[in-house]
Amino acid sequence: MDSNSTTSMDDWLLKEKSPIQNKLPELGNHWKVLIVDDEEAVHSITKLALSNLIFANKSIEFFSAFSAAQAKTILTAHPDIAVILLDVVMEEDNAGLKLAEYIRYNLENRIVRIILRTGQPGQAPEEKVILEYDINDYKEKTELTARKLYSSMITALRSYQDLERINYSKLGLEKILDATATIFAIQSIKKFATGVLEQLAALLNINGTALCVHPQGLIATRERTTDFLVLAGTGQFNKVIGLPISSVLPAKINSEIEAIFASNNCNFHKGTSYVLFRSKQGSDGILYLESSKNLDEFDQNLIDIFCVNICIAFDNLELSREIEETQRDCIYTLGEAAEARSQETGNHVKRVAECCWLLALKYGLSSEEAALLRMASPMHDIGKLAIPDSILNKPGKLTAEEFSIMQNHCEIGYYIMKKSPRAILQTAAMIAYQHHEKFDGTGYPQKLNGSETHIFSRITALIDVFDALHSDRVYKKAWPLSEIIELLQQEKGKHFDPQLVDLFLANLDEFLDIYRKLPD
């Protein structure tokens, strides 16, 4: 305890009253100040002297510690303390200096401003203390009037605010770099939209103080003149995915969105943010965000920087989607060409693709694996292009020799596509080679059994047979559904993987819905 400290504090409090700023603070918004002193009177007098201080529209919230040990506990619970008024002599002669060292080196807190107050300057010489302990201000209690304390506190808070902004800028830029890497890695437009909202929420809460309390927003896109459709949403907008924003947002907001696109600018207004992004392929995107607090200039700058990267990612994603759709069209065209030679409907390959994708997901394959199967399965019969029409379109039963020639389409399809290094064509080659194998090993051309056949091929085998039976062909009429189900049950463990048959039949309505959408 510093000698004569209470008397000194009484003296400066009586000499003059603390200046007051008239601007009212925001509720629940304070600067946190920690008083560390073993004299209770020092705490009371300090709080009284600074009770009316307002800086940057924020008042002070005081915390009291009567020892260095208590101060450590408070600092751990409140890492956002802005200023510490620190006594030197407490439970030990240099307890305050040890605490300052702990704050800087153990807690690694370089932002909090430390004002050292001592009644025994000889115990802690000013020059040594400031250099060795990273102290920001040094005051002898005998010289510390109310006005000087006020001035020191304003200076400390201003420094803390500046350092805090620099730190937030650093964290914000780090978040943008991390978010950009995440966004650019996303391949699905819907995942992209969800990812943007998640990353933006993280950006706006980098200081951990929930800048946007319960933020909610949405991302919607449109192609050319169509209406915006919601791709992703948070809060109440999580329930409107897939709907047009004209039915989700008030007419006034829809008008504002159109005006923003006309002006080609982002907009931040009264807790609401509108961010637009466009692709070179003709698609528009809009990010609409509501928050409980207006975004300041710092937050708007972060969003602006982030949105530059969003626009690039969106454009790349749209380009990737265009390439993927072109690739899919080419695959369907090749598959349809093979089916057309055997006078089968072109929708066969599309149904096979969609049903294979659905069964793959039901089986537990990843969305990426299911998507790969969806792209590759339409080419399972590509080898039929080399089979003579007389065999391919024969209305009656094939002879043994004709059937042997027909079986060659598996190997032909494999050799057509195996030379490509592309994953889709490599997968298609494997499916073409194996889709007539049977689970019990009696299929062709390799007589593989069970798990020797890739799961992609086992899925395609089941779906291909179901579609053949469920559709009219040159050599037969479609079977009744009940007879198809009976056959699948009989062939469990023989022709087909029994687990796949069970999954298919358990979800039959979903597969039949695909047939309703893609009829012959």
What order do the helices and strands come in, and which of them pair?
Blueprint: H1 5-15, E1 30-36, H2 40-50, E2 59-65, H3 68-77, E3 83-87, H4 95-106, E4 113-118, H5 126-133, E5 137-140, H6 146-185, H7 189-203, E6 216-223, E7 229-233, H8 251-263, E8 267-269, E9 272-278, E10 283-290, H9 297-341, H10 347-363, H11 367-376, H12 389-392, H13 400-417, H14 423-434, H15 455-470, H16 481-490, H17 498-506, H18 508-517
Parallel strand pairs: 1-2, 1-3, 3-4, 4-5
Antiparallel strand pairs: 6-7, 6-10, 8-9, 9-10
Helix pairs in contact: 1-2, 3-4, 6-7, 6-9, 7-9, 9-10, 10-11, 10-15, 11-14, 13-14, 14-15
CATH H-level name of the largest domain... which superfamily? Answer: Hypothetical protein af1432
Overall mean pLDDT stands at 79
CATH topology of the largest domain: Hypothetical protein af1432
Approximate helicity band: 40-55%
What sequence of helices (H) and strands (E) makes up the elements? HEHEHEHEHEHHEEHEEEHHHHHHHHHH
Distance between the termini: 93 Å
Strand content: 5-15%
The neighbouring-strand order within the major sheet is 2-1-3-4-5
Number of domains: 3
Q: What ranges have pLDDT less than 50 throughout 5 or more consecutive residues?
A: 1-28, 206-214
What kind of assembly state do the chains in view correspond to? single chain
CATH class of the largest domain: Mainly Alpha
DSSP E strands, number = 10
Query: Which CATH-level-2 architecture of the largest domain?
Result: Orthogonal Bundle
- Which structural class is indicated by helix and strand composition? alpha/beta
